[in-house]
Amino acid sequence: xxxxxxxxxxxxxxxxxxxxxxxxxxxxxxxxxxxxxxxxxxxxxxxxxxxxxxxxxxxxxxxxxxxxxxxxxxxxxxxxxxxxxxxxxxxxxxxxxxxxxxxxxxxxxxxxxxxxxxxxxxxxxxxxxxxxxxxxxxxxxxxxxxxxxxxxxxxxxxxxxxxxxxxxxxxxxxxxxxxxxxxxxxxxxxxxxxxxxxxxxxxxxxxxxxxxxxxxxxxxxxxxxxxxxxxxxxxxxxxxxxxxxxxxxxxxxxxxxxxxxxxxxxxxxxxxxxxxxxxxxxxxxxxxxxxxxxxxxxxxxxxxxxx
Length: 307
What we know:
Its main location: membrane. It is built from 13 helices and no strands. By secondary structure, it is an all-alpha fold.
């Protein structure tokens, strides 16, 4: 049995590429809330998720030719359970957001930053450094400041968002566990995950929506929003996340992804015209600081400070 790899065993260039990709994912996912809101004004939530991931699967269909090779079969074995976890995350988030306040949802989903070091410890028998736990709580406190003023009266929606946060932590760790030390196609892995989510959403829709889905809208705004979410927030984001997790540690990945609320707040402020308080900006700065801690070479940085 091979020993688990860590970020330190990966060439520094690949680590920096992974970090940059994760920050770009945080940017596009931060913008996705406003874009998705536009699309959901035209179509039901679960139906839209089925459309979004169904289109993703179709666009990535050529990558399934890899299934005839060992790399493709390895991606299939990992992609099926990871797709099921992703489906559970999206289902919890979708119904959770519908049943609670947006600020509550943003705060609770950020708990994945705190859960990930614990999940890494339990699922991978690898205890992260104590400073990783500290930065996780710094990021969490920053998110609380970012959403300051919301009333966290716990209800079913809050419970579903909490479950989604826990599943996000499990997802990052299981991606690492199922892909490390294995040669596989990251693009095929992303395609398999998308197919599982798209099919799963259709099945859930069939169970919960009497009369089935309405016909697709013809509005240009709907299709522009859909294409943005498919190309950037799904194909690019999940490909980048799968690649980065294979190169890095789950806790490091989670801290970098924890900057997502900052970019969401910036998008809301500059694109949607929402006002942010001083405390919100302070909270955003703390989240960015925690993300920088995860990505910057601290040993070099500390050595320079000591001079």
